């Protein structure tokens, strides 16, 4: 991964002068009674919160999610988090030759390469029932899967983030299966590929992801269990393979309070949960520490139990 | 309900001399090294734990789950719970003219009357989509539903217990809807009828109920969500009705640690959870207090937070 | 209940132009260093938070709890909750012919009708000891009871809210006793009438309710237990009836962390807790969903575990 | 305290040959189907669990709580706890000249000396209202207080244990008030004297203490709050003193899950809770370590969070 | 302790016109987009939060931690806490003849007197190994110990606060050892002296205390265990004394969630934890109630479980 | 790993006729009053609980921990766990030519090969300070490390289990570092090698491991932190490397309630915790499922949250 230079790399005190995408907008009332906008701005490297004070009705009309703007401002510290103070702002115009898609944070691999890599793993599956179900569902959702984020925030919350998370987990699964040969790679790889697939239904598209109504009322776990049920019915597959795959989906969050009403009761389900955990945590850790100088602590990372991380002075 | 006179009504010190059904058997090794049997015996009124000491290989062969035996013994106290000490025991023979089915604890209403009552509620549903899904699923599982217990133990754990629980809840739902007119009776009644229906897949039959493999690995909540999904697909129904019914199933246990990964987010889902709770608790309370004399405490009731209940001396 | 049209029915974007009562006032310092007032305003239908920015010393003198004001403003969204932005404000004058009492949110039934209904339930009590204690205490506190709110906030937090809550619970108790005939209606009805009665001591009057010192240091549960003790002494009543009523008061919150140091250990105590719960929750749910359009989510409701509720698109 | 030599001082492997009191008896069924008795035996120094195997109906008739027996046996280890294995046993006869009272574990001070010491503290109270209430209640319950245990088990669970606990706490209160002069000794001493006084109602007498019905349904905290209420009414005392004393009773267990629905909100209430804690814990610790040799661990102490304690090898 | 008159004694509504020390500064962005400073100001009696609005770059340059300023302002209420609103502010100049040290909140005893008192306790230690280790470590850290605070905030968070806390605990330990003669005073006194000693490494100096890197990554408990290890190695001491002292350090927070991975398993370790708790709580309580009028409640005290405390009207 | 055939592979119903090592013995009293022995017996493949009933004083003298016996018996089910019922037993004699060491369960790799592999990893460390500390401590404890178990029970609780656990974790660490290149392999490998090293002090030797006194009072985490402190002092090394290694030791259990008073705050510390977790869990899972037939559930595994695991019918 070559060193990037975008919003994710900016430190407190740096200035910003570039095009960015408005990912979300919230209107607020300042404590002087004037309206302001809380914007989430992004470029390819990441996102940042920004405030635009004392906005006019025209401003509120102009600055909406999905538009590209040219921003002048500087990075400030707000309760230990970076925040962009906007000094000036304008909507991009056609002569700027910029498109929203160019400013979406996205995975460091091309979607088509990742699709190819997952497909390769599916080819390797030996158990015919598992392979047919996995292939069927991967094809069914492939298009949305290619660009879906893995989350609204926290980890892999960028375009193709879901696919990138799956690819990393598959690689991890391959190494772990070499070290622990009792693991059933058919079940493990299929579980990895399918575990979060229903996020394509739980979340709206990659540009400005939000929870859908079925996402809120049911969540991706029950949605995916019904997807597997439908696939099995359609392919006329029955047996423990269907049950085991549904169990892996049901239990991959590990605990009731994290959304899995049953704990893992199959070896590969236990491993799936751990692999998911490792990949998500390493992704967040790397982001948190990327711009921290040696001998310093990072910003607090909420989903990592709100910890702040230290980079020892002998690391770079 | 006329006063019953069976095993459920026996107190410590009473003697027992009657036919009973063996619901389950476990072999143990006494601390003198000799094998013994832990039996769960039942008649129509209820169940009791019993011990048969120093058994021969023939005894182990004879006394198996599902058989009817003639028992002589007396009720003793074991750590605050009633236990039957067996003095003598024999297998029933054909001339006894007894059948296992006669000794199964079962609901105080006839299954056919209850089926009729539920059917009546289904007729009353106004929303066509909800009615069609409910009717379809009730028909599909009606036969098993007629005899299924609501649980392996705790509450309504007898033949037709599930149906009896549903009928009580429907009546309760009708009264509550009269008092709180904002309740949508279509959604509430349908939710009551469907909420535990997949217990017919989670548990094996009424004679000696146990968890099935899919019951252990998935549980009745995910199983029922896929049942609704299939029904809707088959009946070509789409829309919020399907989603709302699935949400009611998903959330009817109320909390993640009780098996519902999402909390109720629809008015009728919140009410379904409370109705389920009231009916289960009243059922357990009534059983616990049935034979307690005024001015005394009951045995501890494990699923009621292991409490012991007091019957004031002015109650009978 | 006819459709109301007051502050409770206003949606984000609506304008307000009407008389309202100031229920409470807090002074704050805006982040520009200027004082502002956080007002809680009410009319008969409900309450709303409002902000008055950049206030003068005269404003602070004028706008005090208990006064009626004429307000011009509009409803805005503040972190998912409605908030009234005041554009102009003036104190009511005598020619306006408005009284504070007219702008207090209050129960949808007249206090005298509710007193009558409770009295009717007391007449029906069969157990003489329970009846005498209940009648004695109801008479003793009847005047305050007629107007007391059930809480400072959350549910039934309006004039006569306590009495309305009791009446609803009595009706619910009647229906449940019909469905579960083992319930002792004497104990249940008396427990319902007395359970929160000491809130007339825990909270100050209905206009601007606050916790009293004895409310903070002891709370309504121990206060009511001593009230029953005193009544029994005065009426020279002894026996399990006194103990059972005190136990019902002590345990009606259900759990230590909710304020009941003992769990319910009498059948009617368990039922009292569940009835209290149902009525409080239905009250809050109805308020939360009242103005939500079909297919939308409500504001978050803090005492309902901070959930947001969905109104399916087939409901109105 | 001179070194004692009784059952409390016996170690695993020691033999026992002495008169002891039967504090409680439970009948059990051994896993060979024969009845046995679980006895709790005591002498002045303490108690021990004992088993009598294969008992006859005559044995069950003879060996009842409250009788004195002559025991031959030896101390064995049972899951890390001492247990007395009885080799032979006989009821005491009149010629033995032993009385149950002589074998009750009891406080190391004479009750009359402790009554005298508490009375002295009451004389020192300056606040007339607090003094009158305290004196009134102490006189009312003095007789039962003189012999009551502080608990059924755990700490100070012997005759006059409650009084001894109070005396120790008063001494501790005196020293702490010298070190922290802001403490109000009137409130603190009175709170110490009254805090557990209603245990004379919660528990039956000292010989074989058990929970009473009002002890189980209400507990000593609500009972004592009503006692203070009655005393104040009778003495025509009103004001913050009554409220503060009731608050100290209500909160002295410190947390909801330990039985106090409100936390301490008065300085002396906070201190009362800590003094209670220290004295109870030191009492249990001293008992647990009394017979442990240097360099060894004690038995596990259940109410001290089931910990086992180490006596360093340089201690004796 | 003579009545003080400084910032700690100021009530809401009072004005302030005096020199104060800036203990810490944080820059913020007001919701009108302008920078402001959150200052923590102190004099000998205590600290207060203050806000300086709409600051210039020069202000930000001038007002830094460690400088003395002359402040004009008044005390306001902010969410139940006192806050100083600054009306004007200037840096002190040499002609003011004020030094930062004069405005540090500090213990009510002179450090040299406290050092003397601790030394006296060390002289009294009878166990030579314990005495040598204690003396060695006390000498090693004496200089920093003389001025160190016991915490960044909460209790004893002022200059010499750590030493004052130790002295109070030693006195308390002396009285408790008189009442509970089984306590080993050598172990207890040494444990008290050493228990928080490594706070001199965990926190930076008294003027503006902050956590050091080793304080954050290891904390004072592991740091002190290694200090004892080193001292024992250097003094060539081995045996249970070293182990017991390390155990006391390890366990003095009492529970895993409070920072002690093991619970106290030695009598004196259990007592150390309780003494630490009493002294810290009394210190916070006294501060919270100092300026509260009789019949009123204090501000909420966060480390005392966020409780507000009541001063009964008969106390002064 | 070739298929083994020993006690670990025996199923309920199998007979046993072989030499085994007595790992531990506890004397108990059966409920018929007769003494019995609870033995833990082992061979190379694993352990099993066994009961010897009605033992004579000679038996108690003969059958002690550390001796080899010839056993005749059969495997029974006791509450879902395998138990060996002994039919006959004799001590081994010299002519049997068996040694205790041959019957110790032990790691599937030779200790010398594992020492060699760890040494290789130490050679690869680039950071000189980390390498010197690691090498120093590995040499210091190498002898005990070669045979130490990783625990008294649960996972890797056999001879050389600690070393085997470290080797597996190092291999896992190598693969993860390849997938997540930001990981500092120096810190990670050193943390893996050192993390549990002080278990050689926490537990007694491999034959019959028990907790030592310092193991109970301090535990391996604080012991290892002082070991690193001593090593650094001896090697005159200072700096963040020492602190980072101590932090990794302190935090490797992840949470306070699992024994780490601080959470991981360095990237490699977080990873160390996850690697430790994976290897321990896979080790327990493999053991639990080894003898389970396809389509069946395993025994419950207490340290895996008491779960029972299912082997799908398509796995072998």
TrEMBL record, chains A, B, C, D, E, F:
GO MF entry, a single one: exonuclease activity
Transmembrane residue ranges: none
KW Nuclease (keyword) present: yes
Keyword annotations: Exonuclease, Hydrolase, Nuclease
Pfam families: HD (PF01966), tRNA_anti-codon (PF01336)
A GO BP entry: rRNA 3'-end processing
Ranges where the HD/PDEase domain occurs: 158-290
SMART domains: HDc
InterPro entries cross-referenced by the UniProt entry: HD/PDEase_dom, HD_domain, NA-bd_OB-fold, NA-bd_OB_tRNA, YhaM_exoribonuc/phosphodiest
UniProt name for this protein: Metal dependent phosphohydrolase
Source organism of this protein record: Bacillus selenitireducens (strain ATCC 700615 / DSM 15326 / MLS10)
């Amino acid at each position: 991964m070559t060193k990037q230079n975008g919003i994710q790399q900016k430190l407190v005190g740096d200035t910003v002068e570039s095009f960015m995408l408005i990912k979300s907008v919230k209107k607020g009332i300042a404590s002087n009674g004037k309206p302001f906008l809380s914007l989430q701005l992004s470029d390819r490297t990441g996102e940042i919160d920004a405030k635009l004070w004392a906005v006019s009705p025209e401003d509120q009309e102009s600055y909406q999610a999905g538009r590209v703007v040219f921003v002048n401002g500087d990075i400030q510290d707000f309760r230990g988090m970076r925040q962009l103070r906007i000094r000036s702002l304008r909507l991009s115009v056609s002569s700027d030759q910029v498109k929203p898609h160019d400013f979406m944070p996205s995975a460091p691999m091309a979607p088509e390469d990742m699709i190819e890599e997952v497909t390769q793993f599916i080819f390797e599956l030996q158990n015919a029932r598992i392979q047919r179900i996995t292939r069927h569902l991967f094809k069914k959702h492939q298009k949305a899967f290619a660009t879906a984020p893995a989350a609204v925030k926290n980890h892999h919350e960028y375009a193709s983030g879901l696919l990138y998370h799956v690819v990393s987990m598959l690689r991890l699964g391959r190494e772990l299966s070499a070290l622990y040969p009792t693991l059933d790679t058919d079940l493990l790889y299929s579980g990895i590929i399918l575990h979060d697939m229903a996020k394509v239904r739980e979340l709206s598209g990659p540009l400005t992801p939000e929870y859908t109504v079925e996402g809120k009322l049911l969540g991706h776990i029950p949605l995916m269990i019904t997807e597997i049920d439908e696939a099995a019915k359609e392919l006329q597959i029955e047996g423990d393979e269907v049950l085991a795959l549904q169990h892996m989906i049901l239990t991959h969050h590990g605990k009731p309070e994290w959304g899995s009403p049953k704990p893992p009761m199959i070896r590969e389900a236990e491993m799936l949960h751990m692999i998911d955990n490792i990949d998500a945590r390493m992704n967040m850790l790397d982001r948190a520490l990327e711009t921290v100088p040696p001998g310093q602590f990072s910003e607090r990372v909420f989903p990592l139990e709100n910890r702040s991380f230290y980079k020892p002075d002998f690391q770079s």
